[in-house]
Specification:
alpha+beta, about 35% strand, about 230 residues
């Protein structure tokens, strides 16, 4: 399905669910779909909304992402050795078992403003759980399955103050990655894009609420086969 068609699905789904309250917020796992969009799994809320806004220089965010998500080579064990970056500390997020869906545990590094995790592809504890995706100005509330995570991945999510423009962030990311963006879209309230690297690795980012006091950032490194890209 094309990105445009998916956005239309998101809008329609959000409109259909507007009259019903979202389930109470609980533990939320954040992964990424085939487009690099963040998927909140375990509840139909954006987990980043509960973060406390952090103030970080654009260069520090980009450098931290490289150290956390590329230098660790998608190895969850290696992630633990980077805990001091951005004052992150080790933690654990657990989705309780639900019917035939087993419990799911995810080791993370987190602070009040940010969260980082590595996922290696185990979906057993994710199927049919409620999900929410934020795609620019659209939302989707669905179940895990029609929308799902793809590829080994390292996700970096943050709530920020002071990211009204992504120019400095994109510039530093390009320097750290040694590549220019293959795609970049920047509007008044949102920005997104991606870089393609060797080894079928794609780095994607999306930033929303750029015109609000607190901005939400999602960055992911994923192993994406060329036929999917």
């Amino acid at each position: 399905m094309s990105r445009l068609k998916q956005i239309l699905v998101l809008v329609a789904s959000a409109a259909a669910s507007a009259g019903s309250a979202a389930p109470p917020a609980g533990p939320i796992i954040i992964l990424s779909d085939e487009y690099g969009r963040g998927i909140n799994i375990g509840g139909q809320v954006d987990a980043r909304q509960s973060f406390a806004p952090g103030s970080y220089a654009a260069a520090d965010l980009a450098d931290a992402f490289k150290k956390l998500c590329l230098d660790t080579a998608f190895d969850p064990a290696a992630l633990g050795g980077t805990a001091s970056v951005l004052d992150l500390v080790p933690g654990q997020i657990v989705l309780a078992s639900d019917g035939k869906t087993p419990a799911f545990e995810q080791g993370v590094l987190q602070s009040p403003a940010a969260r980082v995790s590595i996922w290696t592809g185990d979906e057993a504890g994710l199927r049919k759980r409620p999900i929410l995706i934020r795609d620019r100005g659209a939302l989707v509330t669905s179940g895990y399955g029609p929308f799902k995570a793809l590829g080994k991945q390292c996700n970096f999510d943050a709530k920020l103050s002071g990211l009204s423009s992504v120019d400095a962030f994109v510039m530093r990311m390009s320097a750290d990655l040694g590549a220019q963006p293959a795609k970049l879209v920047a509007k008044g309230s949102y920005a997104d894009g991606y870089w393609t690297l060797t080894g079928d690795v794609r780095v994607s980012f999306s930033a929303v609420d750029l015109n609000k006091p607190a901005q939400l950032l999602h960055v992911v490194a994923q192993v994406i086969p060329a036929k999917v890209r």
